[in-house]
Structure formats: C-alpha cells, structure tokens
C-alpha cells in the first residue's frame, strides 16, 4: 500500500534558527518560511535528492504541534509521511485491519494541497504516520 | 554537505510485531530480522521506492536504543540518516562550525559496513542525526 517516503516532519521552536542549521551547518537547500494558518504551522521545506524534510513551527494558539513541543522542548521528529495511490482505499483497508485513523476518518486537504490522513501512533510503533495521496 | 536521506530508524520493542504492521497493515516490502551484535540491535529493512525505513530492536544488555525505549515505551523515530560524500571532511566542517559529534569524533563502521558518525541532538533541533559516507 505505502509508496514513497514523501517527507519527515521535524517540529521546532524557532524555524529561522532551525533553517540556518540546515542551510549553513548541514549545507542543504532550504526554502523560505511559509505560514499555513489553516494548519497552525509555519513550514520550511528542505530539498534532498530523494525526498524532503519539513520543519514545522507552531502558528497560532491551536497549533497541532504545540503539545509535542511542550513534551520535547528541543524539538524533534514529529511525523513521517508515506504516499499512497488512493487514500480512500488505503483508509478502508486500514480500518478493516483494525488500525485507527485519527479524527473523523475522512481525508482532509493537507499542507501540499493533497488529501491526507493521520494514523494513530499506538498502532504504528509509536510513530505518527501521515498518508498523502500522491 | 548532506545528500540523500539514507534511512529513518524506528526503535521498537518487538521487531516481529512491528514487521508485521509494516508488511500486512501497510503493505510494504520487509526484510527478515538480522541480529547485529556489535551494534546492539536487531534490524529489519523496509524498502520504499526512494529510501528505506529501519526497525531496530534492542539486542543485548548494552543496546544503544534501550534508554530510548525506556522513555518511549511504544517505540518511536530514533534517528535519521543523511548521506555525505566524505565523512572526514563533513566531520571537520561540522566541528569547525561548533556542532558536536558524538563519541570520539572518529567515524565508525556502521550497520551497512560504511563509515558513520552521530551528531548531538541538542545542536540539530532535538533530532539524532547519523551521517553515512555513501
């Protein structure tokens, strides 16, 4: 079912400082910060030859990464995103296998403008998994 | 400096159960478990079209992932590995920029038989980074 690794998301407190670490210290190609108010994060894309890293900084009072940063004040890997061909079929197959999909179970439009779902970390080795229809 | 994302490593308590989640629930291609006594882990490789995921289960009393699993009993993302062309040059550049390399600072032979280094999570947004000479 899962295809390419679309991205690894790293939650950070200070996206300017984190961007500078990737740009200067690690010598990577780093985009300008982009506020995504409807997702409650400011995002930066780090382009690697085979995939990308996303840095996420909380935006607004209801940011979905605020609690993660309370528990992990230095920041850390927040989720991993795998691509699927058909997110509805993937959701049905997962639910039939007993895995929990977060929220209503209906795909939402994610930060890349494509349908996404998040899976319950307790069912996936403590890892928050995002599925994105490629 | 950094190139491809070589792998994301996920620490798990039960590598057979975790392998089954990736094989059956997520429909991925999963290798047989391989004990790496000198690294203190049993490893499984999950092959994705553009990179790989490694599942790590502690092996032996001195496993480097034992403490992580005490803190994260469900398991979780443990480190991310980026490829570099020349690990000695990468190390020198990192040290000159003030970043901390774990251990002696000398590259060791990693789980893939190639020279690796680990970088201090406090200097990299709370993320444990492995560099592997590609």
Secondary structure blueprint with pairings:
The structure is a homodimer of 134-residue chains.
Chain A: E1 5-11, H1 15-25, E2 29-30, E3 34-36, E4 41-47, E5 52-58, H2 66-71, E6 76-84, H3 87-96, E7 108-109, E8 115-119, E9 129-133
Parallel strand pairs in A: 1-5, 6-9
Antiparallel strand pairs in A: 1-6, 2-4, 3-4, 4-5, 7-8, 8-9
Structure in words:
The structure is a homodimer of 134-residue chains. With 134 residues, chain A is of the alpha+beta class. The first copy, chain A, has one domain (5-133): 2,3-Dihydroxybiphenyl 1,2-Dioxygenase, domain 1 (Roll), CATH 3.10.180. Helix content of chain A is 20%, strand content 35%. The first copy, chain A, contains three helices and nine strands, in the order βαββββαβαβββ. Chain A has helices at 15-25, 66-71, 87-96; strands at 5-11, 29-30, 34-36, 41-47, 52-58, 76-84, 108-109, 115-119, 129-133. In chain A, strands 1, 2, 3, 4, 5, 6, 7, 8 and 9 form a nine-stranded mixed beta sheet that branches. In chain A, strand 4 (41-47) and strand 5 form a beta hairpin. The longest helix of chain A has 11 residues, at 15-25. The first copy, chain A, is globular and about 45 Å long. The interface between A and B is large, with 40 and 40 residues. Chains A, B: Its EC number is 5.1.99.1. Chains A, B: Residues 4-134 form the VOC domain. Chains A, B: Keywords: Isomerase, Metal-binding.
